[in-house]
Amino acid sequence: MKTNSWIASLLLAALILLAPATPILWGQQQAVWQKISFDSSAARVTNIMRLYTASDSTIYAMTTDKTIGVLQYLTIPQAQRLYFLNSAGTSWLQVPLPSFVKTITSVQQSTTGTLYVATYSQDSATFGFPVLLRSTNKGVTWTASVIDNTTASAEIFCSGKGLLYASIDPIVKQSGRINSFVPVIAKVLRSKDDGVTWESLLQISTSGSIYGLTVSKDRRILLATEDPPCSSIDAKAVDGGDILQSQDAGKTWSVSTVSKLKRGFCQTQFIYSFALNNSTNQVIASAEGTTFSLSDDIEWIPVVNNITSQSTAIQYSSNSIFLFSGRSIKRYSADFSTSATILFSGVETPFFPATLAFGKNNRLYMGGFNTGSAYSLDLSTLQPTSASSEQAVSQVGVDIAPNPTENTANIVLTLPSASLVRLTLYDALGREVRTVAEGVHPAGAQEFSVSLDGLPSGIYFVRARVGGQVFVRRLAVVR
User: I want to staple 224 with a disulfide (CB 3.0 to 4.6 A). Which of 2, 8, 215, 271 is the partner?
Assistant: First the structure.
């Protein structure tokens, strides 16, 4: 999440952009959040900048003790310390870091338990360069190596044993002109040897930032972009409000635009946050007061409009999405047809939510600014408040068999009511290769047979647009 963007959303109310279908409400739910204290021997914690869930469900917290004022969104302090939640889920324990570490920019943990922390070099010859710390014993001992010879912050992502990705976000300097910044070279790097050596996957010229590095199980890489505040650059390769993505482990890249509306007095384009659901390949992005869904890498669909902009979008398993919205959390079904409002009962105020994470035993964890506290919620205690509303929701079904297949795929489309449908097939580059069905179709299950003759082996996407909603399923063609 780009923290300064979220703080800006506290100041600037976004206009309602488009008018998608209104979700059926589950109702408001008074959720009792449990406060989680920090180790009494720890230094003072004022803000939880980010929560991170490791592969073994360990929850890490990046914190700072610097107070954030409402008007300080352009100078948000970076995290200074790292904590992990004890096995009982009742207290935060501090991870010991090397003495030279002043700030940390990212944390990851491998499936084998190796802990990775990104920070800055303090040596005179490499001052400000991004540094990778590695520990196999929860911070008792560390090894350190420089990631890139650039004064920049680094965000890291562990995608397997010894396989690391890093986004390098150089520090942008203002030029001699007012409201003008010198373009820099941002990078995406990959290491196959646990961070010892790095190779370049992408270099872009930008006067803004790249952030939110995410890598899926099938090596799909995504990044968000943001313009600098109050900037006016004539020519740059990447604008704010875009998602950069590669679907072939960094060999080729594409740009997908989420929002090109300008933000307030600074005229800045940006994405508040985004999240990827590995099981459905769906990307959820929050920008300018609207939440968008990108299910097929082709078209962003506005699914939720809010007068206050969300700070964090997180996919929960395959059936729920949680979004911050002002003084509550919105819970949506995966297709956004149902929603519920989870209120912050028991949470200290003032509390500015900044980050969410999911942990063991179906618990949701929340951290924020200016309280020094984290909170957890047992999601199993949340139930729809209106049975009639829940029963009124009928799901659209899109099923493919066989999958993988060789020459023919049978698509079963189930509709809750008569609907305008467009059913198509796209290749991995986003090109439409088959139009399967178009027009109004009756309620119930209908089967369509699709010939795959002439199509090479690879991954394809079946895209069903039903009314104003889009559903996407992957199809593997193997010969």
Answer: 271
User: Cα 446 to chain center, whole Å?
Assistant: 35
The residues, any chain, with a CB within 8 Å of residue 329's CB and separated by 6 or more, are 322, 323, 341, 342, 344, 353, 356, 366
294 near 282, Cβ under 8 Å? yes
Q: What digits encode the pLDDT tens for the residues 324-377?
A: 765 667 777 766 666 777 777 667 654 565 688 888 888 888 887 766 778 888
Burial of 345: CB neighbours in 10 Å, binned 0-12, 13-18, 19+: exposed
Q: What is the DSSP letter of 361?
A: G
- Say how far apart CA 213 and CA 223 lie, in whole Å: 5
pLDDT-derived band of residue 193, with 50, 70 and 90 as boundaries?
very high
Q: What is the CATH number of domain 394-477?
A: 2.60.40.1930
The CATH homologous superfamily to which domain 3-389 belongs is YVTN repeat-like/Quinoprotein amine dehydrogenase (2.130.10.10)
Residue ranges of the domains in the chain? 3-389, 394-477
Query: What CA–CA distance (Å, rounded) separates 428 from 474?
Result: 10
